[in-house]
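Dear Dr. K.,

Following up on our conversation at the group meeting, I've run the structure prediction for Heavy metal-associated isoprenylated plant protein 16 from Arabidopsis thaliana. I'm pasting the input sequence below exactly as I used it, so you can double-check it against your construct before we proceed with anything downstream. Let me know if the numbering doesn't match what you have in your notebook.
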Amino acid sequence: MKQKILIRIAMTDDTTRAKAMKTAVQFKGVNAVEIKGDHRNQIEVTGVEVDMIALINTLRKKVAFAELVSVAKVEPPKDGDKKPEEEKKPEEKKPEEKKPEEKKPEPCCQPWQKPEPCYQPWPHDGYGVPSSYPYPCDPYNQIGEPVYNQDPNCRIM
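The predicted structure tokens came back this morning:
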């Protein structure tokens, strides 16, 4: 849900206004910030699902005293509200230019995958646990051990 939030902040100079706008723009969900009001002491924040309480608390901490003035839901324009000039103009059909398909280069390296250890089965004869249980079948394929020069043609840039 897109909404407009009007916040009054104790701003007296351009430095404070810039700091307030910068703080508001960095907040999650904010799309646009405008300075409003007769004394340029209000900002209008437009965004999708903006947490206004957290925004006001952040502005209070970083800039100056801030208070919520109003919150309004922004409705998208309806299709029936189109200008009549747009409906009268015939649509010109332009021939579509075919773009050559872009081929993605194949990666030179395979992504790293964690090797699965292979363990010897548990002895079911009841005589205890072997001294080196569990041990991997291949001692060179241990988990966490780096593999050097796996593909010599691969370059990391």
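Two things stood out to me. The mean pLDDT is 75. The helical segments are 14-25, 52-62, 84-88.

Best regards,
J.T.
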